[in-house]
Write a structure and sequence with these properties.
Peroxisomal Thiolase, Chain A, domain 1; three-stranded mixed beta sheet; 2 domains; 13 helices; ten-stranded mixed beta sheet; 18 strands; single chain
Length: 390
């Protein structure tokens, strides 16, 4: 029995900031953003979108009524949760009409949470063939105006329907996970913005990838040549390449292997360039980008995936493209979503950035008509968020 990703979709808010405009406003040479870290646009959420609504919007197009009756597990991976106690997955469960006898949980481990959820879902389907699980990665990366991390902000969600006999990617059993207690990136409960040791975080990411890759090779006797592509967690589009290049050299990869993996890496970062950092969803946004933008992928090819969550947990796991996978992608919808977004001027972006939902129990009604998304926050009252499904 094969188990894996049966359906796959992502969502990004309809607003974005052009990073050339942002660089100009901040007195920075634009190439530092567009070439130095490899980012072009930054998705930004209006008040009508949060991790719950974005996750529901990502899942809505791929969860049919028949799927909703078979889903036993709804998992939301996020580090941008809106409640210390109540899982956002319970709201998504309701918005999607999932049958009531299902588990709904939220997982936090920085950018690794959704991967934990995906592999948990795989194990569940292994013992419950014929049933399904919905795994959602949804986050808002926020560092503050005119901060060092501002250019690596972003917002969005990825939804994955997990089943046996999947139509897109069959997950393999062997994986390598590595944990170390470090402070490269964290956000105390009293802080709205994350704290980051940028240099150390980059070094930790590279070290974790090298560590899990070496152990994976030892356990499986596989090598780089076996893979058609490697997908990475992408806090910005250049990060994965920084980890990949030394491994290509250390492993003595041939020129043809280097060309193949680096070419496919470039396909895997196109969506990230247009959206920015979406934390838990970044790896899976990269997978979407590879599948959407590389027309030469073939059935049964092996894809490697590296998940990294600061603090820190890293995991390398693999999947094979299912025969006929290309017939089940959301490529056209993804490109339409990105092309139909609205650019914010820098004054507009800064004004939206400063807007906040009430935190004192007072009521606020929001203009859902200004947001083209199918699911939006409709109002806040008595410390509760109410969502509107158009």
């Amino acid at each position: 029995m094969t188990i894996g990703i049966d359906k796959l979709n992502f969502f990004a808010p309809h607003l974005y900031v052009d990073l050339v405009d942002l660089a100009t406003a901040r007195g920075v040479e634009p190439a530092k953003y567009t070439i130095g870290i490899g980012q072009e646009k930054m998705a930004f959420p209006p008040l009508t979108q949060d991790t719950i609504s974005m996750g529901a919007n990502a899942a809505l197009p791929i969860v049919s009524k028949e799927d909703a009756e078979l889903i036993d597990l709804v998992i939301l991976g996020t580090e941008s949760g809106i409640d210390y106690s109540k899982a956002g997955a319970t709201v998504i469960h309701q918005l999607l009409g999932v049958q009531p006898f299902a588990r709904a949980i939220e997982i936090k481990q920085a950018c690794y949470g959704a991967t934990a959820g995906l592999l948990m879902a795989k194990d569940y389907i292994q013992s419950h063939p014929g049933r399904k699980a919905l795994v959602i990665a949804s986050d808002i990366a926020r560092y503050g105006l005119a901060t060092g991390g501002e250019v690596t902000q972003g917002a969005g969600a990825v939804a994955m329907l997990v089943s046996d006999n999947p139509k897109i990617l069959a997950l393999e059993d062997e994986s390598v996970v590595y944990t170390d207690n470090i402070f490269d990136f964290w956000r105390p409960v009293y802080s709205d913005n994350a704290l980051v040791d940028g240099k150390f975080s980059n070094e930790a990411y590279i070290t974790f990838f090298s560590t899990v890759w070496e152990e994976y090779k030892r356990r499986t006797n596989r090598c780089l040549e076996d893979f058609e592509a490697l997908c990475f967690h992408l806090p910005y589009s250049k990060m994965g390449k920084k980890a990949l290049l030394p491994v290509l050299e250390n492993d003595g990869a041939t020129d043809s292997v280097k060309e193949k993996l680096l070419t496919n890496y470039e396909h895997s970062i196109l969506h990230t360039k247009a959206i920015g950092n979406i934390y838990t969803g970044s790896l899976y946004l990269g997978l979407c980008s590879l599948l959407d933008n590389q027309p030469n992928l073939k059935d049964n090819q092996l894809i490697g995936l590296f998940s990294y969550g600061s603090g820190a947990v890293g995991e390398f796991f693999t999947g094979r493209l299912v025969p006929g996978f290309s017939d089940h992608l959301q490529t056209e919808a993804h490109h339409n979503l990105l092309n139909e977004r609205q650019a914010l001027t820098i004054p507009e972006y800064e004004a939206v950035f400063k807007e906040k939902l009430p935190q004192d129990g007072s009521e606020m009604k929001l203009d859902t008509q200004a947001d083209p998304a199918s699911i939006c926050i409709e109002k806040i009252t008595d410390h509760q968020r109410y969502y509107y499904k158009k």
